[in-house]
Fold:
Amino acid sequence: MRNDIERVLIDEEVIEKRLDTMAAEIERNFPEGPLVVIILLKGALVFAADLLRRVPRVLEIECLNVASYHGGVESSGRVDFLDRHFPEVRGHHVLLLDDILDTGRTLHAVKERLLEEGAEAVHTAVLLAKDKQRAEEVSADYVGFEIGDEFVVGYGLDYQGKYRNLPYVGVLKLSVTH
Ligand code: IMP
Ligand code: MG
Structure:
């Protein structure tokens, strides 16, 4: 697997330190009371598991399956909700977790849906945010790292379903994607 990586962008130790401070920010900022966390599958799985164990409060954890990339390296421009049931969020503060903010379509669409479903407020956290013009007017309340506009894998992020279990964020060799 390591052979497919051109370079490591953010190593494991740096990610772990940042998650400590992100978790502390989240813990500090959230009002008392029930908090529902929504994990966007599958990309936010690794980030969420590592972040949430650092947040010392009672949480309810739900997962949502959405698709926008359909396995390639560019956004398809459409966000599909793939679950039959939508989590109950009426009247709750929601913390929405995704792996990366790219065009912004995913976070925007899911946030809108959560508000439609009656969430009291929707806060968003992403491990990574690409420094680029977004297709939708959206930003994340908590950002782990700002990165350049390039395709990355690891720490939950995939290329055609693979590389999610890399413990760091890296860039694939051109020979893998071409
Ligand atoms: P957005 O809707 O364009 O903001 O894209 C969000 C989704 O696209 C993320 O949840 C990822 O699954 C996927 N994505 C965007 N950029 C990358 C990348 O560089 N590597 C892997 N997946 C990405
Ligand atoms: Mg993906």
In short: Residues 11-148 form a domain with the Rossmann fold fold (CATH 3.40.50.2020).
